[in-house]
Amino acid sequence: MREVLDTLIKLQEIDSSILSLKQTLEIIPIEIKNFEKKMDEIDKQFENENKKVINLEKKRKEKELEIEDINEKINKLKEKTSQVKTNKEYQALLKEIETIQESLKKEEENLLLILYDLDEAKKVLKGIKGDIDKKKKEIEDKKKELENQINIITQQIDEYKKERRQIISKLPSEFYEEYMELMKKHKGLAVAQVKNSVCQGCFLHIPPQLYVEIKLNQSIYHCPQCGRFLYYKPEEKLEQTQVQTK
């Protein structure tokens, strides 16, 4: 029975390792998607800032043309001043020029605001552009690392499965069937350690006499509550003390 118990313990260790690796495999694609999302966000941020610069450039050109038209209009009106014949016409022309000049001043102020916004937008875009390649490379490297990790974990699982098949071949079928039922019932933990009189599967306090028997690890015992196979593992410090004593 000691051999059966050791085999069950080993089988549980392998299955726990396989389950842990499979859980990691489930997480990795999520992490990869998160990295892809970050790359999309960087691209989107760059695209938005670039659009902002393009729009501001367009506004700048429109405003410059508008100012150019106003200046041209003012110049034409000034030329007219030499052609007017009455003082009344002259004063009306000056008033019109003054009004347009005020409009020009306002549009020039608007142009300054556009130039300021454009300058700021270009600075932001330059910052993103300078950082984008570096960030993308970092993300791409992490993605490759995770993809490589998938291959490594898959190989590890295959190795564990080979070892598992060898172990199963040494285990009597009735124990294996019971083991698999417990695995299914308890979501991956069929063999539990008893530590300080407590089943580490369901945390039941094991009766003293049963605990004494389990500590011998010479037979197959089950937890009175959860039904898992139980085993005892000497404390590490105790083992070290024993080695030193020897």
Automatic annotation (TrEMBL):
The record's listing under InterPro entries reads: CT398_CC_hairpin, Oxidative_Scav/Glycosyltrans, Zf-RING_7
Please report the stretch or stretches of sequence annotated as the CT398-like coiled coil hairpin domain: 11-185
The highest taxon in the source lineage is: Bacteria
Chain coiled-coil ranges: 32-170
Tell me any Pfam family this protein matches. Answer: CT398_CC
Could you tell me the keywords of this UniProt record? Coiled coil
Can you name this protein? Uncharacterized protein
